[in-house]
Design goal:
Helix 4 runs parallel beside helix 6. This protein has 117 residues and is mainly α. Helix content is 79%, strand content 0%. The two termini are 19 Å apart. 18% of the residues are buried. The protein has a single domain, classed as AhpD-like (Up-down Bundle), CATH 1.20.1290.10.
């Protein structure tokens, strides 16, 4: 199955299950997450790069994929994303490298999809 489709379909199905069973706390966390990445003193684009880099340090592959999609959607170039992830690697250390590998693979798939649209 396509790398992008597999992630998107799985995430959508999982989110649906979570929201079907969500209590007030879960609903508020989802809402807070949405509000956090909107324009404010920092624009949404900057916030997505922060989300990407912190997710990479925290080694959350699903979060990394989500923020990669948003970064590309908001207009980051491949070079800008790679540079942001390079900073992450310095901060996070070599333990981040396996997650960086998967992130770059996903990033390339996103740009391939973009070129084919």
């Amino acid at each position: 199955m396509n790398l992008l489709k597999e992630y998107r379909d799985r995430r959508a199905a999982q989110n649906e299950k979570v929201l079907e069973n969500a209590d007030k706390v879960i609903k508020r966390i989802y809402s807070l997450d949405t509000v956090t990445y909107q324009d404010g003193a920092l624009d949404a684009k900057t916030k997505e790069m922060i989300g990407l880099t912190t997710s990479l340090v925290l080694r959350c592959d699903d979060c990394v994929k989500y923020h990669l999609e948003k970064c590309i959607e908001l207009g980051y170039t491949k070079e800008q994303v790679i540079e942001g992830m390079a900073v992450t690697n310095v901060v996070g250390g070599t333990i981040v490298i396996p997650h960086l590998r998967r992130a770059v693979e996903y990033l390339e798939a996103l740009f391939e999809e973009k070129e084919n649209q």
